[in-house]
Amino acid sequence: VFSRRAQAPAEPPPPPSPGSPASCGRRGGPGGLSASSSSVMSRCRSDTSLGDETVLRFLQRQNICEEGRRERLNLIESATAPPLRPEICERSARLAERRQQRLASGGNASSGDGKKPASSPTQLEQECTFKPAITALAAQRDARSVEEISLGDQRRRDAHIAKMRDDLKKRDVSSFAPQVKDYEGIGSRLRIIKDPDTLLERMTKAHKAQISRREKELEKAQSKELACCTFTPEVKPVPGFVRRLAASARANREAQESEETGDEGPAPRPDWH
């Protein structure tokens, strides 16, 4: 935009001739110019009458405003930009400074025998409330790094576990040995190899003996149950005539059954049917 404004203004077009159609259209008539056309021409003449100095002063003012705007934008950006360093409190800064001092003086303060110098009470952290109890043996040990504390302890632990595993494999795992007695003279009950011919006979005999033992056990159980009962009825023997009547009735029933089975035709129906 500024480059276009810095260029020289273009020359105005020549005025139209009196006989041209444009001049006829702009004129109100053949007598002269109207009021509107005269005002337009005056504005055109005032615009084209601006010199190069006026344009240059305008461009200089615009450049000054642009530079001020850019300076304000830079100030706002620098004020709102986040800092590239963390905000550390005063106590953390003091702790870090003391640590750097201890690390710097650690190599020079070490004694020749490898023992650490005893720290004076003034060097202890006054702000720390926890004071661990350090033994004399622990105080004589060298300081370890984070890698030695984490990975070193893990390696030693793995080596110790592997050693214990190897010792367990070398050791006799089956330490318990049961004592087995040898029953001499006692063979198999079935004796299939020694006496296979009498196997079925011996099994039948053993089964009958088992059944007889079961019956005896049942009789003993029934006798025990009856012994608990206080009431014992007296059973009298059946008279002779009753036995004779029962025997005759049984004989008649057997004779009727034999007659019914001997007839081939169907049995006659009763009268009431």
Automatic annotation (TrEMBL):
Superkingdom of origin: Eukaryota
Low complexity composition-biased segments: 33-43
Region of interest (Disordered), ranges: 1-52, 96-124, 247-273
Pro residues biased stretches: 10-19
PANTHER family named among the record's database cross-references: 200 KDA ANTIGEN P200, UNNAMED PRODUCT-RELATED
Protein name: Uncharacterized protein
Organism name: Pyrodinium bahamense
